[in-house]
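Hey L., structure's done. Input below.
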Amino acid sequence: MKKQLLSVTSLLVISVLLLSACSAPATIVGEMQKDAADLLKDPATAVAQLAQSSGVSIKPVAQVATPAPASQAPVQPGLLAAYEGTLQSIYETVNPQVVNIRVLVPGTAMTEILPQIPGLPNIPGLPNIPGLPGDQSQPDNPDQGQMPYGQGMGSGFVWDKEGHIITNNHVVDSADKIEVTFADGTTIPAEVVGKDPYSDLAVIKVEMPADQLSPVQVADSDQVKVGQLAIAIGNPYGLEGTMTVGIVSAIGRTLPASTGMFISGPTYSIPDIIQTDAPINPGNSGGVLVNTTGQVIGVTAAIESSTGQNSGIGFVIPSSIVLRVVPSLIQDGKYEHPYLGISGTSLTPDLAKAMDLDASQRGALVEDIVPGGPSDKAGLQGSDRQVQIDGQEVRVGGDVIVAIQGQPIKDMDDIISYLSSNTSVGDKVTLTVLRDGKETDVQVTLGARPSQTGAAEQSVTPQQSKGAWLGIVGQTLTPEIADAMQLDNGQQGVLVQQVEAGSPADEGGLRGSFKPTTINGEQVLIGGDVVTALDGKPVNTIEELKTFLDEMQPGQQVTLTILRDGDTLELEVTLGERP
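Output:
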């Protein structure tokens, strides 16, 4: 579900399901299969026992005579009554704890952060955040210099008796004013206590007597199974107190997280997302999904839809993340996420074959390493060459992470989930990686994820040649790049940034760069071979290298003198014809 608003919404109508922990939650149909079997045998007796144990008031249902054999068995009225009674009881318990959140957001902030508004297309690759754009009208006297404001509405749920209320970060981020309205109509101002854009969670606080606050009870979302009932109560389209029911349709999804639409650099994901088909519409975001015992299993956050309306695919932030993040937001106002300092992708059969690995090999391919980050300090290596797969240029050649702390890694999502669930900032983890086809262990001390994302990878254009083809992307070595590579700042040559797969340079053993670093405000890949001479003739610039290649013929063998990790080497390369 692609976020229409990443930091604040023009009008977010977010629903939240609140469950009081002061009063006992409604006891629902416990052992569903057993109860169903008992109901089929003796509906009246079974329903009476169920009602007595659950506290649900159910009117007696007349015994139904056993029907004659038919092609389809009739619905058992006792089971239906129990199911209805259960939902009614959950609603009566939870709905009074749902709060409305109203925010005022500066119009300028909305213009910057909310590019998706009615009539404009969705932004590819991002989920729709269920937030309903509303009144974005300007003040009555705009000429008096007042800043235009947008009004947003969302929801939240009571966390504790100190007045902390949980909602989505995108509901309150950049809000100048926040008001919370309880089910009895009480409206009270609220202040932000802490926010975490990486989990899309936020804590706000109201000053209210403790006896008027009933905190929710939270279930262990790690125990959630596909197929179990899922119930949401919220404010879709501003319609307060709406309950919808469905099932958990998938678990273990990931949802993109962002600190802002216009910050370039690596992206992050929220792991272990619960998918549900319980109808979620604009206004449900920030709400709560509960199980059949009335306990919170997650916070509704996004929907997957081409129209911005329910299409049967909703995404929910699991309670396991809520339980980790919220206490830190209350205490410190922020949450520090453990951080490896890499970006990469899941290894596919095509990528594996391009790296001369078995097509069945799985893992997470490291593409870029953040300079000075935990993985950089540990010596992890990023991808250093490009190949074409299905008509697209993709990077290969980096370390492939196949295990973390001995736990197998099948894809990048496994790493994200493991770090989130099992590690903290400062922990040391052992990564098992495939490097040049051989398995090795690398120990990394996890850092804290930076508050701002790094700069985007610099785009470079392959050097063209009229004559022979080498197959590299290079850049003239500058004093700044030389310093960054711990070379003499007077060193001259051509830094190999990328090596095209199957090219003469690739076959000759040339290595590309794999470490991004910032030089004079620009991102540059470093760490690759530095070509200093061709057939004994000094190569000082990329233009000189191009001139030499222009004068040579395909099939001609040349000797390249290179610097690799500070050492001088010579490589024999047979030049090719440009494809």
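The longest helix spans residues 77-94. The chain has twelve helices and 31 strands.

-- N.
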